[in-house]
Amino acid sequence: VNLQAAMANILNATQPERILIEPTGLGHPERLKEILLTGDFSNSLRPAATICLLDPRQLLNPRYVHLLSYWDQIRCADVVVINKTDLSEADELAACHKKLHQEFPHLKTVMQTEQGRLDPAWLDLTPAHDTPPAQQHAHTATHAHAEEPLDEVHLLGGKGRRLESHGLGRHACGWIFNTDIRFCHDRLFPFLESLSERNTHSPQKAADRIKGVFHTDRGWIMYNAVAAEYTRREVTASGDSRLECISAGDNLDWLEIEAGLLACLS
Asked: What's the DSSP call for residue 3?
């Protein structure tokens, strides 16, 4: 419902020529297309190419074999972009291309890049009319595995909130704080990096993705981590501070992470 309301507002307010949508780690691309290309939006939106950004090392990682959403995102894509080629060995790239060819023979466009750089021309490639049906083996999913949001919990007298969700074989938790809440830069980022270190030393309790933007005593900072690899950079002021953690498999101790996060308040 939030997606539909936001899309209606965007269309009415700005009448854009193009809208780019990056779903959360629990968002299913097939379900998104179903919502946006039927009903109220069927006469106002025209589908363009669906792009899947892929780390070739993950495609060969046994931890990802059971993730229904992971394989479905590739299956639904018109263009698969193999990212992080600068961090991958030649044999990993060759194995990735072979795997894609074997598992997804319908794929006509496979590109390579690094640092997530996308060629805008890829957005104009003709999308497939029909997504191939999911094969009947371990790495497929249906709409029955859609995201299931849980209750929202308010924090700091209403100035913060926690939201949990699960689905498609993953668990996620997010925290949102009003813009007047500030974090201590020198405490926050060592804490976030410690979560990445947990990924390295305790893979059974890994947060596969950590991303957020924070109002700190040194300005607004964006943080983005996949396993033990992370980046951070200064950004312009945002409407609020937020953190999202996504885990495959076991649910993490969100309350422990929350306590550590609140301890980083300025």
From this structure: H
